[in-house]
Design a protein that fits this description.
Layout: E1 8-12, H1 13-30, E2 33-37, H2 47-50, E3 56-59, H3 62-72, E4 75-79, H4 85-91, E5 97-100, H5 103-113, E6 117-122, H6 148-153, E7 160-163, H7 172-185, H8 187-190, E8 195-197, H9 211-225, E9 228-231, H10 235-238, E10 242-254, E11 256-261, H11 265-268, H12 270-274, E12 289-294, E13 303-309, E14 318-322, E15 342-346, E16 352-356, H13 360-365
Parallel strand pairs: 1-15, 2-3, 2-9, 3-4, 4-5, 5-6, 6-7, 7-8, 8-9, 11-12
Antiparallel strand pairs: 1-10, 10-11, 10-14, 12-13, 15-16
The structure holds pyridoxal-5'-phosphate.
Pyridoxal-5'-phosphate is lined by residues 37, 39-40, 164, 167, 199-201, 232-236, 326.
């Protein structure tokens, strides 16, 4: 958009809708409920749309739980690796479900939240993740309870459990074998429960994913144990629905051409740096102009990647970085005091809303 100053995240509601329709398809045809994982995407400027297709939100902290309650206004699932007493005192006022990460936390806070639905995260000791950093079953993992007998001992206190053991899993057969493992291993527990959340990390909105098979698999699981099945989609709910729009500020040369844009991978697309993956920028294989696209922070490795372009870049050229919805806006930061990208929404009717602009005032207020 010509009249919006770069950089900005551009959320396209019609692209988001493609994912949301698949989520709703699972609900309508197979009874699977989905709660948005706010850790991935908390941009409440599009919650009016998302609310119509999803059942609520799940959270990793008190603030996320509160955001879900205030802005999404449907079911609120509150989970945290560890709650403080004050977290519990606050979140019990508006959460529907509290999911504890350990039996010690469950015992510590049970009496305070006994009127809510109480869940426990289980560590099934299997996982699908290409990244050790995001592997919930890694050695010494603190995420969820491993000891099954100890869970059975307190199962009368639970209405449900949560298993989150996938990360970017687009392989239905792998998912299916994990679910079989869970069914077999935890049958006695599952038979006593009302609901089971299978967490996030399943890429079921991808065009190639066998959605119908997935739905049937989940329905069979729910029917077998008489439980409501939940998913906690983050990335798959918002995949391919946003761009980070940037502008080239300068081109420098050090053996190769390097285009410096008015954004930063460290500040605005941090996950790419953490997981060492290249930003998605249209790469024209036959393009004869090759550039490294780099950020404007002082960090030497602030690099989005290497790409070929059909025409020469110059100061003022626009560079769109795609797939910029999940784990981007929730992680942006004020590193180097760089201007924070605005959040712009292309609505379903084609109009553009500048949902949020940040200024020097926001920067200075984030510090003291
Ligand atoms: C407990 C839990 N639920 C849901 C999610 C969302 O996962 P994703 O964004 O990969 O779908 C995560 C991600 O780490 C998680 O830890």
């Amino acid at each position: 958009m010509k009249n919006i100053e770069t950089p900005y995240y551009l959320i396209d509601e019609s692209k988001l809708l493609k994912n949301l329709k698949k989520i709703k398809y699972l609900k309508d045809n197979y009874g699977v409920k989905s709660v948005l994982a706010l850790k991935c995407f908390s941009s409440w400027c599009v919650f009016d749309l998302m609310r119509r297709y999803m059942d609520g939100t799940t959270s990793s902290s008190l603030y996320e739980a509160r955001l879900g309650y205030e802005k999404f206004k449907k079911e609120v699932h509150a989970y945290s690796a560890a709650f403080s007493k004050s977290d519990i005192d606050e979140l019990k006022k508006f959460s529907n479900k509290v999911i504890f990460n350990s039996i010690s936390q469950l015992k510590m806070f049970y009496t305070k939240v006994r009127n809510l639905k109480i869940g426990l995260r289980i560590n099934p000791q299997i996982s699908y993740s290409d990244f050790d950093l995001a592997d919930p079953a890694r050695k010494y993992s603190r995420l969820g309870v491993k000891n099954y007998k100890s869970v059975l001992d307190i199962s009368h206190l639970l209405s449900g459990v949560m298993f989150h053991c996938n990360c970017e899993n687009e392989n239905f057969n792998k998912f299916s074998s994990y679910l079989d493992h869970i069914s077999k291993t935890y049958a006695e527990l599952l038979n006593k429960l009302e609901w089971v959340s299978l967490g996030g990390g399943i890429y079921f909105t991808k065009d190639t994913y066998p959605l119908e098979k997935f739905g049937k698999k989940l329905k069979n699981f729910g029917d077998k144990f008489g439980v409501q099945v939940y998913l906690e989609p983050g990335e798959t709910a918002v995949t391919q629905s946003a761009y980070l729009v940037t502008k080239v500020l300068d081109i420098v040369h050090n053996e190769i051409d390097i285009a410096i844009v008015d954004s930063s991978i460290e500040a605005h697309m941090l996950d790419l740096l953490v997981y060492r993956t290249q930003a998605k920028i249209e790469n024209n294989k036959n393009g004869k102009y090759k550039y490294m696209i780099a950020g404007k922070s002082c960090l030497a490795g602030d690099i989005f990647g290497m790409y070929n372009f059909k025409s020469k870049l110059k100061a003022g050229s626009t560079i769109n970085i795609s797939d910029a919805a999940g784990y981007t806006m929730v992680k942006k930061n004020w590193f180097n005091g760089l201007a924070m990208p605005s959040i712009v929404v292309k609505r379903l009717n084609g109009s553009y809303d500048i949902a949020k602009k940040f200024s020097y005032k926001d920067y200075i207020q984030s510090l003291s």
